[in-house]
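Page header: ASSEMBLY MODEL / four components / 230 residues total.
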Amino acid sequence: MKTNESNPVIKGSLSTIIMKLLENNSRMYGYEMTKAVREITQNKMNITEAALYPALHKLLDEGLLETTTEQVDGRMRKYYALTKKGKKETIVKIDALKDALESVQILLNSKLGNE
Amino acid sequence: MKTNESNPVIKGSLSTIIMKLLENNSRMYGYEMTKAVREITQNKMNITEAALYPALHKLLDEGLLETTTEQVDGRMRKYYALTKKGKKETIVKIDALKDALESVQILLNSKLGNE
DNA sequence: CTCTATACCTAATCAAATTATGTATATGCA
DNA sequence: TGCATATACATAATTTGATTAGGTATAGAG
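Prediction written out in full:
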């Protein structure tokens, strides 16, 4: 099922969100991330797998994540974790995204006309 | 000059930002919007004209904005204003964007691992 | 007479998401 | 037994939206 009737993900923030999840958890697998985002945001945000997996693969290519694969209950699980480089980069990315979010909020909350 | 060394704009939020500016000001021209955004965000965000004008034209096509052109000091100015439809849509869009921003912030501020 | 600011704009490209599928196992339930 | 749902991975085609890189033109400062 391809449920997606929740809020649009803020474009460009997906990779930072992934890295933040992994900063908190040390390792997670893709499907788990989609559930975690729904839970944390109370279903307001939904990461689709079609967006998630390419993003994960890109972060792997960039050397920011590494993987270990396990068999659990007969199903495959590919765990992702931050590399050393990834941990450093996570801090930078979270900071930049917070700044950007704040700027948008300042704009959205501005009351005065600009003369 | 194509200055752009400020924060990346949160992708997908540009049209909402434009509409918010016009909610505050009743009418503005493009170049004025780029300056307003820099001023309000203290240079943290920069709307490039290459992103702005296509976005304005799209909002025009959707019937959310309307224009009036004036000659000021020998230079052309194309003023944009919200239509009735645009005013309604502005409220909806701002609300949706605020929700989305909040969800991202909740994610970025979440401290606990997800078990 | 040149540089900066003002003021509009588009074309080509790139990045990142969505839409639409595809594979496969495990589990609940009727 | 058989079907739906949940788990778990993934890709291809398309669309959307911004970036990069230009272009035109007037006004004013030095």
